Structures are given as structure tokens and as C-alpha cells.
């Protein structure tokens, strides 16, 4: 039973990804990637972590649009996934990819300065 939340999280990730790609037509939703899904052990709550490519304003607009679409996404999940109770969903902005890109940029800058002999 311990693996059930993980399996459900993967199913939710696949289904919501498909909805974002093919069904949600809100122009505020930019380039959004689902990075992970955490499902509570009682399967009643699911946190969907998303990464949004773009400026802070674009990220904010995308998150607002996703939050407004929560009801639709939850009802579609209930229709697609046969469960006794469809989990309550929340979208959370995952900034780990942005931080990772920034760290890589800094490492490249340090490496380039070392190759040139700058101190």
C-alpha cells in the first residue's frame, strides 16, 4: 500500500500533462512543465509541482491560470482515474529548475574566468 500514492502521483502527472498540452487553452498558461506530484498517504490531496519558463510576470500569470483551472483539472482527473475520492489538487511553483540553470551559468562564468586567467 506504501507505493500507491507514488503510483497515483505518476498517473496524475501523465494526465495533467496531457491536459496542459491538449486541452487547457488559456493564453496565460505559458510553457509549463510538471516536475512532480506529491500525493498524501490517504490519497485525498495532491500537490502538483510545475516549472514555468518565462519572466516573473509570466510565471505569476501562468500560476493564476492554473489555480483558476483547478476545478476543471480535478473533475477531469475524476472522470479519467477511477477512485473512490478524487484528490483535492493544488499547484505549486517549482523554482528548482530556474535555480539549477542559474548555478550552471555561474559555474560556466567561473570556468571561463579560470581559463582566461582572470582573478
UniProtKB/TrEMBL annotation:
GO cellular component: cytosol
Main location: cytoplasm
Tree of life domain: Bacteria
UniProt entry keywords in alphabetical sequence: Cytoplasm, Ribosome biogenesis
Family annotation (InterPro entries): KH_dom-like_a/b, RbfA, RbfA_dom_sf, Ribosome-bd_factorA_CS
GO MF annotation terms: ribosomal small subunit binding
GO BP annotation list: maturation of SSU-rRNA
Subcellular location as annotated: Cytoplasm
Subunit details: Monomer. Binds 30S ribosomal subunits, but not 50S ribosomal subunits or 70S ribosomes.
Function: One of several proteins that assist in the late maturation steps of the functional core of the 30S ribosomal subunit. Associates with free 30S ribosomal subunits (but not with 30S subunits that are part of 70S ribosomes or polysomes). Required for efficient processing of 16S rRNA. May interact with the 5'-terminal helix region of 16S rRNA.
Family: Belongs to the RbfA family.
Name under which the protein is recorded: Ribosome-binding factor A
Originating organism: Desulfofundulus thermobenzoicus
Lineage: Bacteria, Bacillati, Bacillota, Clostridia, Eubacteriales
GN (gene name): rbfA
